[in-house]
Specification:
Layout: H1 9-12, E1 28-29, H2 41-48, H3 52-56, H4 62-72, E2 79-82, H5 84-96, E3 102-107, H6 111-119, E4 123-128, H7 137-147, E5 151-155, H8 167-176, E6 181-185, H9 189-192, E7 206-211, E8 224-228, H10 230-237, H11 247-257, H12 261-284, E9 295-299, H13 304-313, E10 316-317, E11 319-320, E12 330-334, H14 338-351
Parallel strand pairs: 1-10, 3-4, 3-5, 5-6, 6-7
Antiparallel strand pairs: 2-8, 7-8, 9-12, 11-12
Helix pairs in contact: 2-11, 4-11, 5-6, 7-8, 12-14
């Protein structure tokens, strides 16, 4: 049956985004960069003690915004609570993307940057990492000066490459982006230890987005934050929905930020596990790229599809990223805590024979 009202032309041109496969519960989830343990016990206690009145009422945000602002070291006027990073990205696109004008991305990167820009009818300028997964800084600076895109989306660390831009590179980008909103997605900043969130109050063209889906283990609750200067925040509130985050997510995030210890401990454990995985991959002769996040981009070559299938039969999920590179072989591996990572390592040592074509 045809639609009575057709989709907007921009939406008709888009390919649908495919979220994680079903049937992942109970598997070792090393495929979507989630926390593989779950949230801290205080989160579960907060959810269990949520009062019926809180569930029956529309959410109230002021207390959560004040606590989150203190947690991130900004003022309350610099923050918007969002339904995960995707809601923040959609809000930015709603506010600043313009049909027919440009948005700049560097691929491979998080697919939703292109998705939301194209949904609003923006023309996407896509640069590429080189074959050594180095960020094309000079090309980005040139594109900012010549094309003056309305938005530049940057993941830092980048997903799926794991590469990290340092403060010096980001300062150059902001200086060149005189007519551009620079969005720095810090979804993996808990693992890299690098953040520019303290810059937002003095940078007129900087937006930082953060999430509690990764190190905090709350991907299923969908809560994040958008951080920017007060003028940008005020402008974006005009196009933001009134109740984007539910009461359960607010209660959970307040519980976890009362003491950031569980997030820091999980991040330290995962970084140690990632380094252990790096050592094993070197020994097995499997190429990978340096990462500042909780994952590695690995090249298993033509044997990747068979390896992924055999690991899945053992209950271990990895993410096939061959579509980003035009050939099979590229796989992203999430690092969980060492016990989970060692389960994967044991399987790899059994299934992967170095030198076999």
């Amino acid at each position: 049956m045809s639609l009575v009202v057709p989709l907007r032309r921009a939406a008709q041109r888009m390919a649908p985004y495919h979220p994680p496969l079903e049937g992942r519960v109970g598997m070792l989830r090393l495929d979507f960069n989630e926390n593989t343990v779950g949230p801290a016990p205080v989160v579960m206690q907060a959810l269990a003690s949520l009062e019926p009145e809180r569930i029956a009422s529309y959410p109230e945000y002021r207390a959560a915004e004040e606590r989150l602002a203190r947690f991130f070291g900004v003022r309350i006027e610099n923050l918007i609570v969002t339904n995960g990073v995707d809601d923040a990205l959609r809000l930015i696109a709603d506010g600043f993307a313009e049909a027919g004008e440009s948005a700049l991305i560097v691929e491979p990167t998080y697919a939703m940057y292109r998705f939301y820009a194209e949904l609003l009818g923006a023309r996407v300028i896509a640069l590429r990492y080189d074959d050594r997964m180095r960020f094309p800084l000079e090309d980005v600076l040139r594109a900012l000066r010549r094309s003056r895109p309305r938005i530049l989306f940057l993941a830092n660390p980048n997903n799926p490459t794991g590469g990290l831009l340092g403060p010096g590179q980001l300062r150059k980008i902001l200086a060149a982006a005189r007519r551009t909103m620079v969005v720095v997605d810090e979804a993996y900043a808990d693992f890299s230890g690098v953040s520019v969130r303290s810059w937002v109050s003095r940078q007129p063209n900087l937006i930082v987005v953060r999430t509690f889906s990764k190190a905090a283990g709350m991907a299923g609750l969908r809560i994040g934050c958008l951080l920017s200067n007060a003028d940008v925040v005020t402008a974006l509130r005009r196009v933001h929905s009134p109740y984007p985050v539910n009461s359960a997510a607010l209660a959970a995030v307040l519980a976890v930020i009362r003491n950031g210890g569980p997030i820091r401990r999980y991040a330290r454990e995962v970084v140690a596990a990632r380094r252990e995985l790096e050592r094993v991959l070197r020994r097995l002769g499997v190429p990978f790229y340096p990462s500042a996040a909780n994952f590695l981009l690995v090249d298993f070559g033509p044997r990747a599809p068979e390896l992924l299938a055999r690991l899945r039969r053992r209950g271990i999920l990895l993410r096939d990223r061959s579509g980003d590179f035009g050939r099979v072989g590229w796989v992203r591996i999430t690092a969980g805590p060492r016990a989970h990572t060692r389960t994967l390592i044991g399987a790899l040592e059994e299934l992967w024979k170095p030198g076999r074509s």
